[in-house]
Amino acid sequence: MLRELTLHNDVKQIELLTEFIEVLCEELGLDAMLTFNLNLVLEEAVTNVIMYAYPQDEDHTMTLKTWTEQSDNIIVFELKDQGKPFNPIEEAPEVDTTLSADERQIGGLGIFLINKIMDDVTYRYEEGSNILTMKKNIKA
């Protein structure tokens, strides 16, 4: 099972992403909490590309591919864009979750959530593209 979604760098595209994830999770028979968490993770990742990868006045696209591995026990999401190189694993600011929301610095919470929710997160820059790969065991 391979699914693919192309999105423009416009926050209005989040609605298409949400619909894509909900249909996918329904087809896989995933429960509401896992569906919510996957939606949260992907919305964070896509929003970061929309907000930071490209100049705001230019139209660009990104591609989200998803498939299952290991007898359908693991779902994989690969987000690919041609924006500014940015490794969120190494370059995102460290988040101090012991501080209140008012005391915390802006930024970094999205990748923190992605790392908390997903089982494996990797980044690579290849042939002019940022590629963020996120895996989740959906049968655990």
Keywords:
alpha+beta, Heat Shock Protein 90, 5 strands, 140 residues, five-stranded antiparallel sheet
Structure description:
There is one protein chain. With 140 residues, this protein is α+β, with helices and mostly antiparallel strands. The protein has one domain: Histidine kinase-like ATPase, C-terminal domain (Heat Shock Protein 90), CATH 3.30.565. The protein is 36% helix and 29% strand. The chain has helices spanning 14-28, 32-53, 88-91, 109-117; strands at 2-8, 61-69, 74-81, 120-126, 129-137. Strand 2 and strand 3 (74-81) form a beta hairpin. Helix 1 packs antiparallel against helix 2. It is globular and about 40 Å long. The mean pLDDT is 88.
Fold topology:
Layout: E1 2-8, H1 14-28, H2 32-53, E2 61-69, E3 74-81, H3 88-91, H4 109-117, E4 120-126, E5 129-137
Antiparallel strand pairs: 1-2, 2-3, 3-5, 4-5
